[in-house]
Design a protein that fits this description.
The protein is an alpha+beta fold and 398 residues long. Helices cover 26% and strands 25% of the residues. The chain has eight helices and 18 strands. The strands form four sheets. It has a five-stranded antiparallel beta sheet, with no helix packed on it. It has a five-stranded antiparallel beta sheet with strand order 12-11-10-9-13, with helices on one face. A hairpin with a 2-residue loop joins strand 4 and strand 5 (193-204). The N and C termini lie far apart (132 Å).
Length: 398
């Protein structure tokens, strides 16, 4: 016993430390081995239980499936959650030519294009339409059924088109086509009758102006200016604009052409047609092949129109474009239309975009009239009301 102690005492301290360390390592490895055996045994036991449960029919039957249940919200709740939609001048939901496709707005005292409703033959300021959550009308439209039912339509300044290509009234800067001898053209023979002919002579006046002698196919000759000659060929779309001086083929006489002013370009609101006001105030919807551009129009095309109510109407129409004043009517509605200075009763047979077809009670004759025509009694009262209000505003002291 003494000898063992002596041997231990004789060992180097570093050797003793190393032996102690080796003992600790051995104990740790032994414990780690036991722990690993336990973990593996536990894992194997869990795997066996899982396989046994999965093979159990009862376990298969109690599996849960995800189910999605959709509940329809009430319409009032949906409307309350929706964001307000900004009003549009024209909506995809609108049908072309529908009276509801025009937008009414609250007039201001200093506005020249203000709207007002005419009911019971008395002008009254129109009210802005109130927002109704239960309304099913398309955004940007207003209902005028109540006003029409009361016998007085709504007169509105309608944004007619929604793109610049449909509203332009500026003459495009295109090179002019030179008029030459033997060129086939359409030339003025009388005020409302142009005919096809050929340029047989170019005459230069003392002041430098050019005149063109045209020999017509249907006999006769005329010495005319460039603004009384139209191209025989069909124009291109990029040459056309609202306010252009044109002539169109007469629907009753293929040899006759009539002068007018281009007043609408094709859009969804007019079913992709051109509206032309003839110089006698007759409105017509036509296709592109019926149009012929005047070769050398005057700087102001309206100067070629005789001084009459139609000339004043066209001047105001072009000033207001693309917000022309339009009345709203329904089929079978009774209205008054001026004929030779006298208001006559008639009935609306149909509405076609900016035009209405009326049947006069006294003669049963039919006629197409623009919904902004000064011949309509409601429109005449509207314009008179505007003039009176403007005069009052001008007379009021500042």
């Amino acid at each position: 016993m003494v000898m063992e102690v002596d041997v231990l005492d004789d060992l180097d301290p570093r050797t003793l430390a190393l032996k102690n360390y080796m003992g600790i390592v051995e104990n740790h490895n032994e414990n780690l081995t036991k722990s690993t055996h336990k973990s593996i045994h536990s894992l194997n036991e869990t795997s066996r239980k899982t396989r046994r449960c999965q093979s159990d029919p009862y376990f298969i039957n109690v599996k849960k499936k995800a189910v999605v249940v959709l509940n329809r919200l009430p319409e009032c709740t949906i409307n309350a959650l929706q964001h307000p939609t900004p009003q549009q001048f024209h909506s995809e939901a609108e049908s072309p030519g529908s009276p509801g496709s025009d937008m009414s707005w609250q007039p201001e005292d200093d506005s020249d294009d203000s709207d007002f409703s005419v009911s019971n033959n008395k002008p009254k300021p129109s009210k802005s339409p109130k927002c109704d959550r239960t309304s099913k009308s398309a955004p940007g439209t207003s209902s005028n059924d109540e006003s029409v039912a009361e016998g007085g339509p709504v007169v509105e300044s309608s944004a007619f088109a929604h793109s610049s290509s449909e509203t332009t009234k500026v003459r495009p800067d295109l090179p002019e086509v030179e008029l030459k001898l033997d060129m086939v053209v359409l030339a003025r023979k009388r005020a409302m009758r142009w005919q096809r002919g050929k340029i047989v002579e170019v005459v230069t006046k003392e002041d430098g102006r050019l005149k063109f002698k045209v020999g017509f196919e249907e006999k006769g000759k005329s010495l005319v200016s460039g603004h009384h000659i139209a191209f025989e060929n069909t124009p291109k779309l990029d040459q056309l604009y609202v306010g252009a001086r044109v002539v169109i083929q007469s629907p009753d006489d293929k040899l006759c052409f009539m002068p007018g002013i281009l007043s609408e370009l094709p859009s969804r609101k007019n079913r992709l047609r051109f509206l032309v006001f003839l110089d006698d105030h007759t409105p017509l919807y036509v296709g592109l092949p019926s149009l012929h551009l005047v070769c050398k129009p005057l700087e102001d095309a309206l100067e070629d129109i005789p001084d009459n109510p139609h000339k004043g109407f066209m001047k105001q129409y072009l000033k207001n474009w693309p917000y022309p004043h339009l009345t709203h009517y329904k089929a079978d509605q009774s209205i008054n239309v001026e004929v030779n200075g006298v208001q006559q009763k008639c009935k609306v047979e149909m509405v076609d975009c900016s035009l209405i077809k009326v049947v006069f009670e006294s003669t049963q004759s039919k006629e197409w009239i623009h919904r902004g025509s000064v011949r309509l009694e409601h429109m005449a009262k509207f314009l008179k009301f505007k003039e009176t209000r403007k005069a009052q505003n001008n007379s009021d002291p500042q």
